[in-house]
Design goal:
seven-stranded mixed sheet, alpha/beta, 8 helices
Length: 253
Amino acid sequence: MKEKIIYLIKQTALYNMYKENRKMRLERNKLFPGRVRLVDLCNARYITRKPIYDFLIENADRISGNVLDFGCGSMEYKKILKNVNTYSGLDIEGADKNGFFAEDVIYYDGVHIPFEEDTFDSVISIEVFEHVEFLDDVLRELNRVMKQGKTLFFTVPMFFPGHLEPYDYRRFTKYGIKKKLELAGFAVEKIEGSTTFKNTLRRMKILELKERGGQKWLLKMRCILSNMCFLHSNEVTENEKAPIDWLVVCKKI
């Protein structure tokens, strides 16, 4: 009888949703490559995520005071930012349906950010702006809720397949980013690529193999080899034209 009940539960849509959400949470827990471990080298997302992690660590002292995490998801970056007074997570209504869960998240309607003017000393937004439908409006809203002269730190993709579809609206060049920021009242301090072109291609090859399916151990071996090559060759120059992501720092003017 007990086995039959368990079987029936496992056939429900709610149980399948639970499994998928649990899988997504476990996967996100792997996205913080610090010191190099075997579990990191086996991670198919390592080439994408390590530059983002390093970007946040590099700027951790500057991400301070009252901090807004725009598009916060599960607020996984909160744990590495120690120099904060308050930490506010903001996400789009319905984000929890894509498996993003955290306590005390504030939700907004996709355009209007529910904070007063001049509230935040720092804003971070990691891999979010490609999913914002009304980006120009939202950038102006972010500018409004930031204090004068304070800093926005964000990352956006240049070279990456569609994801979280159908809520994936754009890819960026660094010139397009600069133009949008200037129109919204920001001055760009730095835009740099996250990967060299060769390492971008390594990440795309891993995605191709994952999409194709097949033996999991072969994918793990490919990940280990590609990630080791990435660690020893990711010397990005200012002339890089095809990184996976752009790492951006800008100030409210």
